[in-house]
Amino acid sequence: MPRWLPAALLVVVLLATTGVAVVRAAPQVPCYFVFGDSLVDNGNNNDIASLARANYPPYGIDFAGGATGRFSNGLTTVDAISRLLGFDNYIPAYAGANSDQLLTGVNFASAAAGIRDETGQQLGQRISFGGQLQNYQQAVQQLVSILGDEDSAASHLSQCIFTVGMGSNDYLNNYFMPTIYSTSQQYTPEQYADALIQQYSQQLRVLYSNGARKVALMGVGQVGCSPNELAQHSPDGTTCVAEINGAIDLFNRKLVALVDQLNSLPGAHFTYINFYGIFEDILRAPGSNGITVTNRGCCGVGRNNGQVTCLPFQMPCANRNEYLFWDAFHPTEAANILVARRAYSARLRSDVHPVDLRTLAQL
Questions:
Q1: Catalytic choice (37, 38, 226, 249)
Q2: Cα separations in angstroms, 172 against 145, 166, 168, 245
Q3: CB 3.0-4.6 Å disulfide test: which of 92, 114, 207, 331 passes with 170?
Q4: Active-site pick, 330, 351, 353, 356
Q5: Per residue in 34-82, pLDDT tens?
Q6: Per DSSP, what are the bridge partners of residue 25?
Q7: CA–CA separation, 129 vs 117, rounded Å?
Q8: Catalytic: 82?
Q9: Does the annotation count 327 as an active-site position?
Q10: Separation CA 278–CA 227 (nearest Å)
Q11: 353 annotated active-site
Q12: Distance of CA 351 to CAs 30, 79, 263, Å?
């Protein structure tokens, strides 16, 4: 057997180990910045006083780095997106990043974070979207120092991709937790969606004013279909909770309108990624994607494996690629890769508004 491989074959062999088929070339954009919650947190909560942490096995059981703080068995959506964009390395957590890594982007996401500052407070410390923006503003000042002046930093940042996925916890760990939060008494679902969008709009304008131009807003997924909500509120353990999904649908519709508003800003390219619709499509015909179990966590305790989330050193299911959910709330790597592919290259017109990430990178 020869001791060498043709270069093209070597690339194929390398790609086969990643689970995401992309061509290894220069990244399509020079940098990628991530904002969000536990769906994309990759370690920012590891060293803070929070119950919302995933830096223990079996989290990361299928990830080369083990239990890094990712709330999945393997890749998150942004890990898969970073590979699709052509980055050799995953975008590092801001908490452990060095100044050189700021040039290619960092991940500011924090589990339990929301648009509203109080969201998730019952879980301890977390970095709300407002706090993530403060960290980003500090990073921008470092970039100005590294690149020499504000114009150079602005030019660099204008080419970066930014993904922002906020809102899930504002429902899961706020509005639909009436024993702790009063928002459901203060607001109707319509009023709450309006209040969230108003605050989100102001926050996203801060992001824009600090250099972000290519921004993808990830819609909130079908939280009412998560094993945790099915365990608590679904009579048959399969039917999604309509009250929760209906409230989230209101928010997402307003988020699409917000994208159109933000695109009136000079040089702005905002887009909406329809996580809700993509998730719905997967649930409609799960078998076509190799996913056969949609209402139970691969790792968890109780009804639907969703009443208590994955415990330290608990033995997860063996057939993880067949599960939509890894634990009570978060998707498996298999599901995350499916969603990332459609965010990057839309399969249906409804997947994005107005463009997918591949197109956004080219603008």
A1: 38
A2: 40, 12, 6, 11
A3: 114
A4: 330
A5: 999 999 999 999 999 999 999 999 999 999 999 999 999 999 999 999 9
A6: none
A7: 8
A8: no
A9: yes
A10: 18
A11: no
A12: 25, 19, 18
